[in-house]
Amino acid sequence: MMEETKLTCFQRRYLMDCMKRGDTLPLQCYPTSCKKPAPAAPAFSPAVCQPSRLSAKPHLRPAKVCQAGDAYTREKFKPQARRDLEKEKQRLQNILATGKDVVECNVRQTLVRTKEEEIPEPDRFEELVNEVQERKEFLAEMEALGQGKKYQSIVLTEISQKMREMEIIDKKRSEEMREIMTKDFPSGKSFFP
Questions:
Q1: In the chain, how many domains are there?
Q2: Whole-angstrom distance between the N-terminal and C-terminal Cα of the chain?
Q3: Beta strand residue intervals within 36-128, DSSP E
Q4: Are 132 and 171 part of one and the same domain?
Q5: Can you tell me where the transmembrane regions are (predicted)?
């Protein structure tokens, strides 16, 4: 990585020395001088700044330093939405009168009904069409990767099975339609030959 960044020999030596000592790497490495740049003025007061090297003894911060931070500030109280007391009274009356929470039962039943009504039963014929399309796409991908011969017989067999199942479903539907159409005509003659 040093070779890619085109560092000078001095910069490489300086960085390797920093790594050996375990120091942090400098943000800027001056190319020709061994002088370290003057440290910038600290953002905090000297009492707040921690020494860069940790000694063997743990240091405890004084109380003034802890209080100077945001650790002791309290969050302001933000009231939340209150309960509807009339609704709660009505609910309690229902529980005491009937022994059940009638309102909740009605809500649950309506939610279950709406969920059942929203989910239509999947059509098997449509599922088969999607599966055939997926297999065709898979085979095209394998052919593009050069693995088409390996999977071609397997995928074509699966596609033919799906097509056969689609034909069976189609025959059943056409027979059902024929029966419906013959029932509609009172003479018993079918619309179909």
A1: 2
A2: 83
A3: none
A4: yes
A5: none
Contact 190, 182 (CB under 8 A): yes
Please, what are the averages of pLDDT over each run of 10 residues along the chain (193 residues)? Answer: 72 84 75 55 51 64 78 77 82 86 60 63 86 93 90 92 93 90 67 54
In this structure, is residue 106 part of a structural domain? yes
Q: Is residue 145 part of a domain?
A: yes
Shared-domain flag, residues 97 and 136:
no
The pair of three-digit structure tokens given for residue 23, joined into one six-digit string: 């120091």
Segments forming the whole domain that contains residue 89? 84-113
- Reference 63, options 43, 41, 82, 48; nearest CA is 48
Burial degree of 72 (CB within 10 A; 0-12, 13-18, 19+): exposed
Token pair for 127: 């599922």
Task: Tell me what pLDDT residue 10 has.
Answer: 82
Residue 131 lies in a domain: yes
Res 76: pLDDT = 81
Decide if 37 contacts 30 (C-beta within 8 A): yes
User: What are the CB-based long-range contacts (under 8 Å, 24+) for 151-159?
Assistant: 159/132, 159/135
Instruction: Considering only the C-alpha atoms of the chain, give the largest distance between any 2 of them, rounded to a whole number of Å.
Output: 111
